[in-house]
Amino acid sequence: MIAISNVSSVPRSLPTASVARLPRYLRYLDQVAGSIDVVSSEEIADGSGVSAVQVRKDLSFLGASGTRGVGYDVATLAERIAKALGVLTQHGVAIVGAGNLGTALANYQGFASRGFDMVAIYDVSKRSVGKKIGDLAIRHFDQFPEDAAEFGISIGMIATPAEAARDVAMVMIETGIRAILNFAPVEIPLVDGVTVRRVDLATELQILSYHLAQS
Amino acid sequence: MIAISNVSSVPRSLPTASVARLPRYLRYLDQVAGSIDVVSSEEIADGSGVSAVQVRKDLSFLGASGTRGVGYDVATLAERIAKALGVLTQHGVAIVGAGNLGTALANYQGFASRGFDMVAIYDVSKRSVGKKIGDLAIRHFDQFPEDAAEFGISIGMIATPAEAARDVAMVMIETGIRAILNFAPVEIPLVDGVTVRRVDLATELQILSYHLAQS
DNA sequence: TAGATTGTTAATCGATTAACAATC
DNA sequence: TAGATTGTTAATCGATTAACAATC
User: Fold this and answer.
1) B49: alpha, beta or left? (left if phi > 0; alpha if psi -120 to 50)
2) To bridge B179 with a disulfide, which of A208, B2, B121, B163 should be the other Cys (CB 3.0-4.6 Å)?
3) Which residues touch strand D (CB under 7 A)?
4) Does A176 touch chain B (CB under 8 A)?
5) What is the per-residue pLDDT for A215?
6) Model confidence at B108, in pLDDT bands (50, 70, 90)?
7) Average pLDDT in the A48-66 region?
8) Sheet of A71-73: strands edge to edge?
9) Mind telling me how many Å the CA of A1 is from chain B's nearest CA?
C-alpha cells in the first residue's frame, strides 16, 4: 500500500484554540515592527500573555518559520500569520443596528488596519435611516440583500435588539453571508458553511461573577 | 490513614467550559419560565445551542437536580444555576471610558435583570466629566479609588482607548477590584486573585476571516 | 410494567505542557 | 565550540461524547 502524504507547508486547518491566539501574536508583532527585526518565542509570549511553548507550538502549525538559536523574523512571521488568518485580503464589513452599540462599532478605529473595511450600516427606524455615522449614511435594512454583492459585504455584524437578531441573521445567511459576529443575546441556528461568533456581555459578566463567588 | 471526603453538594469549582455555558442555560430558562414548569435536557439543549449530553453533564456538576423520566423543574434549576454563578447577590459595575463604547455599555439593558447594577461611569476628559448618561453623571477617574467601596464596585469595565487601558487596570487592581472586563486591545498583567476577561473585536473579526479563508 | 429521561462511568478526542533533539 | 532557541515527539491533562444503568 502506498500512502501519499500531504506536503503543503500551510495546513488546511489549524486547531481552533491556536486560531484564537494568532491575532494576539499578530498584534504584538505589529507593535514591535518598527523597533526590532527578530523576536524570540519568549518575547512573543510575554507580549501576548501566552506561554512560550504554546507560542512555538501554534507557530509550528503554520509551518516552521523561525531560526534556531535566533528567533523569528518579525516581518516574515507577521505576514505568515496574516496570511493564515486570511487578513491579507480585504473583507467588507456591514453593521446592522445603528443604536449605541452599532454606532460604537462603526466608530471603532483599528478595523481598517487589518484588512477590514466598514462598508455599510443598516437600521430599520425612519428616524435613523439617512443619518450619517462617520462618513457612512445609515441605510434601510431592506436594502441589505441587493447591497451585499455590490458593496462586497463578507462579514455581517448584528447589533440589533434581541428580538430582531434572528431575522437579521436569516436574511444575512440567505444573502450568502458566511461570517457573522452577533452581539445580541440570541442563538443563531447553525447553518452549514456559516460561521457565527457571539460577543455576549451578559455571559461575560456572569462568568466574572462566578469567579468572584469562588474566592 | 483516614481520608475525610468533601460531601458538599455544590462543588467548589466547576470546569471552566461548563461555567461559560451556564449563562446560556439560564437565559433559556428565563425565557420559558412563564410558560412551562418542567424542561428536558433536550429542550435546554435546543434552546441554547448545546448538545443534550453536554447539558446534563454540566448540570450534574451543580449536583443532581432533575427527575429521571421527567426533566428539570424550571424555577429550581434557574435558581440553582444563578446561585452557582453568584448572580443571586448584587454586583456593582463601573465603566471607565465614556466614549461610544462606554456609552453603549452604560445604556445596555438587561444588565439589571441578573444581579448587575451599573453604579458609575468614569472618564478623564473635561468635556465629558459631569455629563449625564441615562441617570449617571460621568465622574472623573481620579475619584475611582474613593468611590469603589462607597458605591460597592466589584466589577470594572475598561472601555478606554488602548493607551489608557493598562493604567486603568492597575488602578482598579490596586483599589481591590477583582473582576475586570476589558474591551481595549491590550494585555492586562496577571495578578493573583484577579479575573480579567477580554472582549476583543479585532480578534473576533480575524477569527471569522480565518474561517472565510478556509472554505 | 413500559417509556422516558436523568446521571454516571468509561472511552475518545483535542489541547497543553514537558522533555529533548535539532541546529543556528 | 558553546550558548541559545526552535520545532517535534511524547506525556499529561481536561473536555466531550458514547454507552448504559438508575429510576421516575
Assistant:
1) left
2) A208
3) A 39-42, 52-53, 56-57, 59-60, 64-72; B 15-18, 51, 53-54, 57, 67-70
4) no
5) 84
6) confident
7) 95
8) A38-39, A71-73, A66-67
9) 30
